[in-house]
Write a structure and sequence with these properties.
Shape: globular
Structural class: alpha+beta
Number of helices: 6
Oligomer: single chain
Distance between the termini: 21 Å
Strand order of the largest sheet: 2-3-1-4
Largest sheet: 4 strands, antiparallel
Radius of gyration: 17 Å
């Protein structure tokens, strides 16, 4: 298996995707545990935007010390796993590694390069529940930062009509 190296720059915003093991749909039903897992992280970071779906989540964080980003991800995963019961479908390797079989081992990250890149990823995050067929309108998905962005005036409450959808350039990040 290749040994991946992650490259981060200090004080950059980073888009992150974390997926459950075998795409187990456990996140929404355990949303309070997930929120608490983010709050228990001991490293300083700002959560810019995010969306939680049943089997994965996307979010953008900003961290002054880029070396903390893998530690933040690890902390969220371990905090969440600690509160969850063991999965009955663990492999022998997972049992030997004392893994609960809740998360995929890797995660996806992307450094936000500029303002345009940030807007593309914000659109992607907020459009994701529609993409996966959970809702017809972005504002109907309660597990997203979309409402906060409406309050700040960044989005109109009816964002993502047909014209908006065609203007989203990064609908296929996954």
């Amino acid at each position: 298996m290749p040994n991946y190296r992650r490259y981060f720059q200090n004080a950059n915003q980073v888009f992150i995707t974390i997926v459950t093991y075998n795409r187990l749909p456990i996140l929404i039903s355990n949303i309070d545990i997930l929120r608490q897992s983010f709050q228990q992280v001991k490293y300083e970071y700002n959560l810019i935007a995010g969306v939680v779906l049943p089997d994965h989540l996307h979010f953008i964080i900003r961290c002054e010390n880029s070396g903390f980003i893998p530690k933040i991800i690890s902390s969220v995963k371990s905090n969440f796993s600690r509160e969850m019961p063991f999965n009955n479908y663990q492999s022998e390797k997972q049992i030997l590694r004392r893994e609960k079989g809740i998360w995929q081992r890797k995660y996806f990250d992307h450094i936000i390069r500029d303002e345009d890149d940030l807007h593309k990823h914000l659109d992607y995050i907020h459009y994701n529940p529609i993409k996966h067929g959970y809702v017809q309108k972005v504002r109907d998905w309660e597990y997203s930062s979309f409402e906060k962005f409406i309050e700040k005036g960044y989005y109109d409450c009816d964002w993502c009509n047909f014209e908006d959808k065609n203007g989203i350039k990064f609908l296929n990040l996954e």
